[in-house]
Structure formats: C-alpha cells, structure tokens
TrEMBL record:
<keyword id="KW-0472">Membrane</keyword>
<dbReference type="InterPro" id="IPR017927">
    <property type="entry name" value="FAD-bd_FR_type"/>
</dbReference>
<protein>
    <recommendedName>
        <fullName>ferric-chelate reductase (NADPH)</fullName>
        <ecNumber>1.16.1.9</ecNumber>
    </recommendedName>
</protein>
<dbReference type="Pfam" id="PF08030">
    <property type="entry name" value="NAD_binding_6"/>
</dbReference>
<feature type="domain" description="FAD-binding FR-type">
    <location>
        <begin position="408"/>
        <end position="527"/>
    </location>
</feature>
<dbReference type="InterPro" id="IPR017938">
    <property type="entry name" value="Riboflavin_synthase-like_b-brl"/>
</dbReference>
<feature type="transmembrane region" description="Helical">
    <location>
        <begin position="157"/>
        <end position="179"/>
    </location>
</feature>
<dbReference type="GO" id="GO:0006826">
    <property type="term" value="P:iron ion transport"/>
</dbReference>
<keyword id="KW-0274">FAD</keyword>
<dbReference type="InterPro" id="IPR039261">
    <property type="entry name" value="FNR_nucleotide-bd"/>
</dbReference>
<keyword id="KW-0249">Electron transport</keyword>
<feature type="signal peptide">
    <location>
        <begin position="1"/>
        <end position="19"/>
    </location>
</feature>
<keyword id="KW-0285">Flavoprotein</keyword>
<dbReference type="InterPro" id="IPR013130">
    <property type="entry name" value="Fe3_Rdtase_TM_dom"/>
</dbReference>
<dbReference type="GO" id="GO:0015677">
    <property type="term" value="P:copper ion import"/>
</dbReference>
<dbReference type="Pfam" id="PF01794">
    <property type="entry name" value="Ferric_reduct"/>
</dbReference>
<feature type="region of interest" description="Disordered">
    <location>
        <begin position="628"/>
        <end position="649"/>
    </location>
</feature>
Length: 728
C-alpha cells in the first residue's frame, strides 16, 4: 500500500516536473530533499483542502512552506542549490517563490513550528494552520530511504555507462591490436617472446574448447550451438560478471523503510529499477552489433560474424535483465498489479518482454539453419516489438533517449543498405550453372564501385519468388570483363536451389537475371605484412581467398622475399571447372599454387570442360605427351569395358587440365592441416600468416594447428586470419 501511494506521488510529480518524453533528469541531492520532505510532510500533516494539489499547497500555503523549510534544514539540506530546484518545481505550478521567501519561511518555522504531539486533538488528515516540526529520527529515516531509492536511478545510469564503457575498452584494445598489425608490422612480428606466445596460445587464439569454433556443437539432435573463440568467451564472461556486479552494487535495505512495506518489496523494487535501466542502456548497443553497417567493424577490424556473437550474448543478458525487472516489479506492485496492468506502459512492457523471450528461442541455430528466411522475418518482427514496446514503456519515465538511439542505429543501417543498393544500380547479371554445383554470377558494376579483395556483398536475385532475400557471397573481380564482379555460389537448399532448377530449364544452363547488390563489405587481412602469406581455401571458399592472394601478389611484385602460396582443397575435378579461368590466370604470377583433390576418381561432369575450349585442345597429342612424360600428376582412371571411350576421353580431359595448369601443383587426397601448417612454418623465412576460408571443420583444424605451432623453435611470428564467417 505504501508503495502504491508513493507511486502516485512520484508519478504526479514526475509528469508535472518533466512533461512527456523529456530526458532523464538526475535526482541528486535537490530532488531527494524535495521528494523526501514532501512525502514525510504529507504523511505527517495536512495544510490544504483536498481540492488543492499537493505541490501547489506546499509551494503556496505559508504553514506548509515553513514546514518544508524546516524539513530542508535537517542535515543542511537547505542549500541554495536545493532551494533553486524547489523554486523551479513551484514555478511549474505557477507559484513564484524567491530565495528570500524561503529564508523567511525558515524563520517562521523556527518561531512558530509545533510538534504534532503539542497540538491538541491533532489529526494528520485534518487541515492545520501551523508549521509542523518533524521528529529528527524520522526525518533521518526518510532521508536515508530516499537516498537508496532515488540514488538507485542515478547510479543505475552510471552503471549502465559502465557497461558501455566496458565495451568501449574492449573495442579500443581490439583496435590497437588489430590496427597495429597493419600500421606497425615490425613491432608485432618481433612479439614472439614467451609471454606473448603464452597469451596467444592460451587466450587470444584458440577455440574455447575442443578446437571447435566455426563448427557447431550438437546435443539432443536439434540443439546446436556455436561456441565463440576463447578470447570472445573471455570478453563475454567479463561482461556477464560486470553486469551481475553492477546489478547488485549499492542495493540495500533501510531498516523500517517508510517507502516500502517490507525488505523483500524494497529490494525487489531496487533490483527491478536497476535491471530495467541497465537493459535500456544496452538496447542501442545490441542493435548496433546486429547491423551490417556497424562502424565498430571498421574500428576493431572484427567482422560481422564476431559482432553477431556479441549481439547474441548482449541480447541474452539484456533479456535476463528485463526478466528480472519484470519479476521485481510484479513483486513490488503486489496487489496493485491487477489494476496497473491495465496501464499502457505496463502492457507495452509485457509486450517487449514476451517478444524478447520468443527471440531467444526463435534464434536457435537449428532454426536459423533450417528456415533462414523465416528466422529473419520473425526476428525482425520481434525486434520491432522489443523496441516499440520498450519505447512506449519508458516514454514517460525519462529513458526514451535510449530507444531513440536504438531506433536511429537501426534506421541508419537500413538507410545505408538501401543507399548501397541504389548506388550499385540494378544491373542484369549473367548466371550460369557450372559443374552442376556452382552458380557463376557475373555482375557489371559501376566504375566508381570499388571492389575489396576478400570482400563480400549481399545479393538479391530480382525474381518474383525470392527478390526480398539477400544472401552474402564473396566476390572476385572478373578477368574477362572490365568492371564486372563475379560471385561463385554453391548450390544449397534455398535460393540457390531455386536458381539451380530455374537454370536447368535454360539452354546452356545460363541466363540473365536482374540483381541488386549491397556492398562491398569486409576488409582484406593484414596478411600482406607477413614474410609468408599462406592462403587456404576449401571448396567454394576460394573466391575471397583467391582475390586476396592475387591482390597481395600484385602488391609485392618487387618484394622478392615475400612468399605467397595458395592451397585449394576440392572434392572432384569438376570443381576446377568453374574457377578454371582464374586458375589459368595464375600462370605468370608469383603465387605458388597447390590444389588438393580429395576424390580424384570421381569423373562426374567432366565433359563440361569441353565447353572451356582448352587453348590447344588436342586430345591425342596431349594424351601421348603425358604418357611419354609419365607425368606424376597423370591420373589412373578406372575404365570399365562398356564406356572405354568415355573413360579415355575423361582421362584426356584430366590430362589436359594438368597440362594447361602446369604452373599448379596437383595433389591427390586430403591434406591434414597440421602437416600443412608445420611444413609452411618450416619453409618460411620469417613471419607466416595463414588466411583461410572453407569447411568449418577444416578451419577449426587449421586454427588448432596454428595454435600448436605458435611456440615454434625458430620464433617465427605466426598469425591466423579466419575469413569464414559463420553467423547462420
Ligand atoms: C561472408 C560470407 C560470404 C560467403 N561467401 C560465399 C561464397 O563466396 N560462395 C558460396 O557458395 N557461399 C558463400 N557463403 C555462404 C552463402 O551465403 C550461403 O550458402 C547462402 O546464403 C545459402 O543460400 P540458400 O538460400 O541456398 O541456403 P539454405 O539452403 O536456405 O541455407 C544454407 C545455409 O546458409 C545459411 N544462410 C541462408 N541464407 C543466409 C543469409 N541470407 N545470410 C547468411 N546465411 C544464410 C543458412 O543458415 C544455412 O546454414 C558466404 C557466407 C558468408 C557469411
Ligand atoms: N566468408 C564466408 O563465410 C564464406 C565464403 C565463401 C564460402 N563460404 C561457404 O563455405 C563453404 C565451403 O565450401 P564447400 O561446401 O564447397 O566445402 P566442402 O565441399 O564441404 O569441402 C571442400 C573440401 O575441403 C575438404 N575438407 C573438409 N574438411 C577438411 C579438413 N578438416 N581438413 C582438410 N580438408 C577438409 C573436403 O574434403 P573431403 O572430400 O575429404 O571431405 C573437400 O575436398 C560453403 O558452404 C560456402 O557456402 C563461406
Ligand atoms: C511568516 O509568518 C508571518 C506571520 O507570522 C506571515 O505573515 C508570513 O507570510 C510568513 N511568511 C512565509 C514566507 O511563510
Ligand atoms: C539552514 O538550516 C540551518 C540549521 O540547520 C540554519 O542555521 C540556516 O540558517 C538555514 N539556512 C537557510 C538559508 O535557511
Ligand atoms: C500555469 O500557467 C499557464 C499559463 O498561464 C497555464 O497554461 C498552466 O496551465 C498553468 N499551470 C498550472 C499547473 O496551473
Ligand atoms: C481524523 O479525521 C478523519 C476525518 O477527517 C477521521 O475519519 C479520523 O477518524 C480522524 N482520526 C483520528 C485519530 O481522530
Ligand atoms: C523516533 O524517536 C522516538 C522517541 O524519541 C521513538 O518513539 C520513535 O519510534 C522513533 N522513530 C523511529 C522511526 O525511529
């Protein structure tokens, strides 16, 4: 009941003092004095009839005002600063007061004030015409009760800034580390001492456990989770611990608290206020993390997937805070709940909480993987509920600005995305299906649109069945045509499969499709700063890896000391088809290329190579030559009697490939990352950077091999740049 009355008092004062949608105003000493005295006086005596509102009464009734001045004089609260705030509150109800009047009121108090005990027939609810003297010990109690209650609002904002400050610190450190790899390469290369190695080996580089980072853990069949890297886990743990600490500091109960019925209710309220405010403060951050155009990606050189990891964790923590907030307030409202729940602000709070709760489950990896578009749509709808619900929940409480920020961040991201689409234009692309597994998409780009080596773009295929979907693909700059970028999209189950079926109906399995492109996103790595840059790609991971390797090679043409190697691991020969022209281009480059073919016996779709117009395709000649040379790369092809012709023709094709790509070293079978890493480190003359994209398990293998080799005997600086981004 007490809290109910209190709520009305604070509510009316707040809305009078602040008006709607006003920014948060710090309570501080002046408002604590004002609210404490108002509440204590109003529960002690009455000076005006019920039709006059309390603030007007206290500002204008001389006895009430004297009593206020008396209350303020306790513990030296009658300072000019505090009085100014009181004068302002009175001016809000059109009562003009001056400092002199307040001083005079205090003089009147000292002369005339009486304790209720000294007034005959005193009744707290009946109007008196005398200043009332308060009991010091009670005044003290009210003062301390308001200290903990109202300070909590002020401090919660400081603590919220503390949480944001934590992330700032993380970003600054990340920026220093990641940018100095580019700006001061020498410094980092020399950091191979025992301490830095220890830190990198155990903290900054490995997966959290089991060498798994990009590859998910699965339990109970449908529960899949991606465990962040160890560094990410530490950063998140730090955040969790800090959040718990800041949710609990300076929360304590004042024995006999006049504001709350019991310790339980008081503590619930304090924690509810704290967690609600912290959650409000975190909301813009978690929206920022989720955006494609997050400036922090540039600052920290962390990619989108890393920010999505943080987005998920900040979101989870924020939701837990909101849940605690909701439970705390339910306890605090007690029997008033059923009444208050009719209020819009409470309904909206519930809407946001329920929306946030559903997000936690609809965002599960299994659902994202299985129905990405459904995930995305519901995610957006629920996120809108979170922001809109939160917005209307706090609009009158002084916290609306965090929701302005959250909405602004989101709108900004969307606006930039639309801007990028428009800047690119909506050209017609040529889409062809190659080797029955990959869609090659050639897109004419505007001349001013700069492509980024290793960068990616999001593409919309403007067909009625899928134009709204935007999918990320790495691009390379086309060799054949100027101002054209090429994407190589592996056929999977969604849009890519739709296109696969669509193309199957076209002659030559190629057609023109209008596209919208949003990009470029992503950045090249710092690999060009290392003595050896080793690029490793698996399957369709090649385009980004290739374009970065080529870009470094053209940069370091004069740098004879720098070694650039490219490893590509593919399953079958047919996969070479769609990247064949690029592989040919490597002929005169300094890149040393090795291709591993893990299933060399498979000859599916080899005939498609004939459309490639091998430069000097002459099966007889080449076949003989290679026989004579007993070329180590020449491959035994199982021939069965039925189609010997076909078998020999595929052998021809394979041999022709080896001929044409004689600048490339072919190896059959699957490499182990451990051996590959060990060998490359041994061969390198100095620092080594591994840049990789491909199958998640392969990347996790690579990461752990690099970690194992950090403390190599020769003290070579080893770096690992993961170009695979897993966010779905
Ligand atoms: C930065 C980046 C670069 C990529 N570059 C290439 C590339 O060069 N070549 C290539 O073949 N693949 C690339 N991929 C993977 C590619 O985005 C997906 O294979 C493609 O979106 C699948 O489309 P779908 O509808 O056919 O897939 P589905 O069969 O519907 O889904 C297959 C998988 O792709 C995920 N996925 C689906 N839609 C999206 C989306 N819009 N955003 C993110 N993930 C999604 C799903 O969660 C699922 O795990 C890249 C991914 C990322 C994140
Ligand atoms: N930035 C990005 O996020 C990005 C960019 C481009 C592509 N992609 C995605 O990356 C994926 C990779 O391409 P993919 O599906 O074509 O690859 P894949 O076919 O699954 O694998 C390609 C090759 O890698 C080998 N391999 C797998 N695990 C290995 C390991 N642990 N060690 C050594 N070799 C291993 C395979 O050998 P086996 O035959 O023996 O299995 C196979 O030959 C695609 O799904 C693509 O969409 C992502
Ligand atoms: C102080 O008291 C006198 C009467 O004693 C009264 O006239 C005057 O208005 C009072 N002033 C204030 C500010 O309360
Ligand atoms: C403030 O209160 C003290 C007593 O606590 C008193 O001595 C002083 O005069 C008061 N000042 C004003 C401006 O009323
Ligand atoms: C104060 O005065 C203004 C203008 O005279 C009026 O609009 C407003 O309603 C008044 N406020 C109160 C609380 O009486
Ligand atoms: C005080 O006055 C109210 C009416 O204004 C009355 O209902 C109440 O009983 C009185 N209390 C005491 C203790 O006399
Ligand atoms: C204040 O002191 C009086 C006695 O001086 C005592 O009766 C009363 O209970 C005390 N009140 C509080 C809240 O401590």
């Amino acid at each position: 009941m007490k809290s109910g009355i209190f709520y009305l008092t604070i509510g009316s004062l707040l809305s009078v003092a602040a008006g709607t949608a006003a920014p948060y105003e710090k309570y501080g000493a002046p408002k604590k004095a004002m609210y404490a005295c108002n509440y204590q006086l109003s529960s002690t005596a009455t000076w005006c009839s019920a039709d006059i509102d309390q603030t007007t009464c206290y500002c204008s009734n001389p006895y009430a005002l004297s009593s206020v001045a008396g209350c303020y004089s306790y513990a030296g609260r009658n300072t000019t600063k505090n009085y100014k705030v009181l004068i302002e509150a009175c001016s809000e109800v059109n009562v003009t007061l001056t400092m002199d009047q307040l001083e005079q009121a205090y003089v009147n108090y000292t002369k005339n004030a009486k304790s209720p005990a000294d007034i005959e027939g005193f009744n707290a609810t009946e109007v008196v015409e005398v200043p009332i003297k308060l009991q010091d010990n009670v005044t003290d109690l009210y003062m301390r009760a308001y200290d903990v209650f109202l300070d909590n609002y002020d401090f919660s904002l400081y603590y919220g800034s503390g949480l944001l400050g934590y992330w700032c610190l993380v970003f600054v450190l990340a920026a220093i580390c990641n940018w100095s790899k580019i700006l001061f390469p020498g410094l980092f290369k020399s950091l191979t001492g025992p301490f830095s190695t220890l830190v990198r080996k155990h903290i900054t580089m490995p997966a959290t456990f089991n060498n798994r980072k990009t590859h998910e853990f699965t339990f109970l069949k449908f529960f899949q989770i991606l465990i962040p890297s160890r560094l990410e886990t530490l950063i998140i743990s730090g955040f969790v611990i800090l959040t718990i600490a800041l949710s609990a500091t300076r929360i304590y109960y004042i024995e006999g608290d006049p504001l709350f019925e019991s310790r339980k209710i008081a503590i619930s309220r304090y924690i509810a206020d704290r967690t609600g405010i912290l959650a409000t403060n975190l909301t813009p951050l978690l929206i920022l993390f989720a955006g494609r155009n997050n400036f922090l990606q540039w600052v920290t050189r962390w990619n989108f997937a890393t920010f999505i990891t943080y987005h998920k964790w900040v979101a989870r923590i924020t939701f837990i805070l909101v849940l605690i907030h909701a439970v705390g307030f339910t306890i605090d409202l007690g029997s008033y709940y059923s009444e208050d729940v009719k209020d819009l602000y409470l309904i909206m709070g519930i809407v946001a909480t329920v929306g946030g709760g559903i997000i936690l489950f609809q965002g599960l990896l299994y659902l994202r993987r299985s129905w990405y578009e459904f995930f995305l749509l519901t995610h957006i709808v629920l996120a809108v509920l979170w922001i809109a619900g939160g917005w209307l929940h706090v609009v009158d409480l002084g916290y609306i600005h965090w929701f302005y920020a959250a909405a602004a961040v989101w709108v900004f991201d969307r606006a930039v995305r639309i801007g990028r689409l428009i800047v690119f234009g909506f050209p017609r692309s040529t889409v062809s299906l190659l080797a029955d597994e990959t869609l090659k998409v050639d897109i004419p780009k505007p001349a001013h649109w700069k492509s980024v080596p290793g960068g990616h773009a999001f593409i919309h295929f403007l067909r009625p069945s899928c134009f709204w979907q935007s999918h990320p693909f790495t691009f390379t700059e086309s060799y054949e045509q100027k101002d054209t970028i090429t994407l190589y999209c592996k056929v999977k189950g969604g849009v890519t499969h739709g296109l696969y079926q669509y193309l199957a109906t076209h002659p030559g399995k190629t057609t023109q499709i209008r596209v919208a492109v949003e990009g470029p996103y992503g950045e090249p790595t710092a690999a060009y700063r290392y003595d050896s840059a080793i690029f490793i790609a698996g399957g369709n991971g090649i385009p980004g890896i290739f374009s970065e390797a080529v870009s470094i090679a053209s940069r370091s043409r004069e740098n004879t000391k720098q070694t650039i190697k490219l490893f590509w691991i593919v399953r079958e020969y047919k996969s070479l088809l769609w990247f064949y022209d690029e592989l040919r281009q490597l002929k005169n480059s300094k890149i040393q290329t090795t291709i591993f073919i893990t299933k060399p016996d498979s000859q599916r779709h080899l005939d498609d190579f004939k459309q490639k117009d091998f430069e000097n395709y002459n099966s007889d000649k080449i076949y003989k030559e290679s026989e004579e040379k007993k070329d180590h790369t020449s491959v035994k092809v199982e021939s069965n009697s039925e189609n010997e012709d076909e078998a020999s023709s595929t052998t021809d094709i394979i041999n022709t490939i080896h001929e044409e790509l004689d600048h490339i070293n072919f190896k059959m079978g699957r490499p182990t990352m451990e051996e590959l890493v060990g060998e490359e480190i041994k061969e390198s003359t100095g620092s080594v950077a591994f840049v990789a994209c491909g199958h998640p398990i392969m990347l996790d293998d690579l990461r752990s091999s690099v970690v194992k080799n950090l403390d190599n005997k020769e003290k070579k600086r080893i770096e690992f740049f993961e170009q695979l981004q897993v966010w779905a």
